[in-house]
């Protein structure tokens, strides 16, 4: 009889696709894969510290490395393991657009599973979602909020039913059977849930519009949009829906009991790229506030609203200063 192995995966779309690919891979390696549990973003630290109980042996997918994992795949550059233990027999870490891509490459490298092309579409969708390659693939901003296509529908549903373990297991099991997102998006359990969140999406979009904008003529000139998301759902790409010409977004966001300042470039407007080439670094600006991130996207977290509001003012000033500097540089 084949040995059981439990799959633990990041709760997002990439985590789910990774689970599907790992299932096929481990079956090929003569295991009996069993879908374990999703690990939520807030649990990542506990996961890393081995504080989340797991059934063994297990596979760790799209999550930081644990030395007790038999199987391990990940792609987040900030999670790169310094050492791999002897317990971990099957693994690959690589900076890639998605963890699904890393598993797919492993399958290819080891020349396992004949019909690899059956995974190609799923992996592509995981890459688009995880690395925000929407603009590159001609996907409009609204598709990330009010999706018409199957992959978008499933991704939005995962974001809205964040702690629904059953939904994740169902999607994974269906994908293992069909490998076809279109077919799964048409199933009743997806359609019914989608109907439930639909009114909330409409309200959130309306509220976002009311609580966002160019704060001054200077901001308009810079393409700097500020917004506040306190009592409704955070939609990462909503600024691109209402302000397609914007370059940089600064938001004050409340999720659960945590406040954060989120800054991002507009990935649909390539005029924003020049700012970062010239040296604008959002992650570095947010370091002063205990946050961080990449050049073009970052965040800082706070526990009090007052502190967040005060910091937001300073951050906006800081970004203004940076943008003014870059403007004067380009005139030289
Ligand atoms: Mn991922």
Tell me what you see in this structure.
The protein has 2 domains: 3-188, inorganic pyrophosphatase (n-terminal core) (Alpha-Beta Complex), CATH 3.90.1640; 212-331, Diaminopimelate Epimerase, Chain A, domain 1. It is built from 13 helices and 11 strands. The chain is 44% helix and 18% strand. The protein has helices at residues 13-28, 44-48, 99-109, 120-130, 150-160, 165-178, 181-185, 188-210, 217-222, 238-242, 273-277, 282-287, 305-331; strands spanning 3-10, 31-39, 58-61, 71-74, 90-93, 212-213, 224-229, 248-255, 258-265, 292-293, 297-302. Strands 6-7-8-9-11-10 form a 6-stranded mixed β-sheet. A 5-stranded parallel β-sheet has the order 2-1-3-4-5. The structure holds manganese (II) ion (MN).
Bound molecules: manganese (II) ion
Task: Give the overall average pLDDT.
Answer: 93
Structural class: alpha/beta
Order of helices and strands: EHEHEEEHHHHHHEHEHEEHHEEH
CA distance, first residue to last residue: 73 Å
Give the CATH class of the largest domain.
Alpha Beta
Question: Major beta sheet, specifics?
Answer: 6 strands, mixed
Question: What's the alpha carbon Rg, rounded to whole Å?
Answer: 21 Å
What is the topological layout?
Layout: E1 3-10, H1 13-28, E2 31-39, H2 44-48, E3 58-61, E4 71-74, E5 90-93, H3 99-109, H4 120-130, H5 150-160, H6 165-178, H7 181-185, H8 188-210, E6 212-213, H9 217-222, E7 224-229, H10 238-242, E8 248-255, E9 258-265, H11 273-277, H12 282-287, E10 292-293, E11 297-302, H13 305-331
Parallel strand pairs: 1-2, 1-3, 3-4, 4-5, 7-8
Antiparallel strand pairs: 6-7, 8-9, 9-11, 10-11
The site of manganese (II) ion has 6 residues, from loops.
């Amino acid at each position: 009889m084949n040995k059981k192995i439990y799959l633990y995966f990041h709760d997002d779309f990439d985590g789910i696709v990774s689970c599907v690919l790992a299932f096929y891979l481990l079956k090929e390696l003569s295991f009996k894969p069993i879908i374990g549990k999703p690990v939520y973003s807030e649990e990542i630290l506990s996961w890393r510290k081995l504080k989340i109980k797991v059934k063994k042996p297990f596979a760790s997918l799209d999550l930081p490395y644990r030395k007790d994992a038999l199987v391990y795949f990940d792609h987040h550059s900030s999670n790169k393991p310094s050492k791999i233990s002897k317990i971990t027999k099957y693994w690959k870490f690589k900076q890639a657009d998605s963890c699904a891509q890393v598993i797919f490459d492993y399958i290819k490298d080891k020349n396992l599973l004949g019909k690899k092309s059956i995974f190609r579409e799923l992996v592509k969708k995981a890459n688009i979602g995880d690395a925000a390659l929407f603009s590159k693939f001609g996907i409009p901003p609204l598709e990330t909020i009010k999706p018409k296509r199957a992959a978008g529908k499933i991704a939005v549903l995962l974001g809205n039913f964040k702690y629904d373990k059953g939904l994740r297991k169902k999607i994974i099991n269906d994908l293992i059977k069909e490998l076809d997102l279109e077919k799964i998006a048409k199933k009743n359990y997806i359609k019914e849930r989608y109907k439930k969140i639909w009114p909330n999406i409409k309200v959130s979009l309306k509220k976002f519009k009311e609580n966002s904008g160019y704060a001054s003529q200077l901001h308009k000139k810079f393409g700097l949009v500020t917004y506040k998301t306190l009592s409704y759902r955070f939609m990462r790409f909503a600024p691109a829906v209402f302000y397609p010409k914007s370059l940089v977004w600064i938001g004050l966001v409340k999720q659960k009991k945590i406040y954060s300042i989120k800054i991002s470039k507009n990935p649909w407007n390539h005029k924003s790229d020049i700012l970062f080439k010239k040296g604008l670094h959002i992650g570095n600006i947010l370091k002063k506030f205990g946050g961080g991130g990449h050049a073009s996207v970052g965040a800082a977290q706070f526990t009090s609203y007052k502190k967040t509001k005060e910091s937001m003012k300073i951050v906006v000033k800081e970004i203004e200063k940076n943008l003014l500097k870059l403007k004067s540089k380009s005139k030289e």
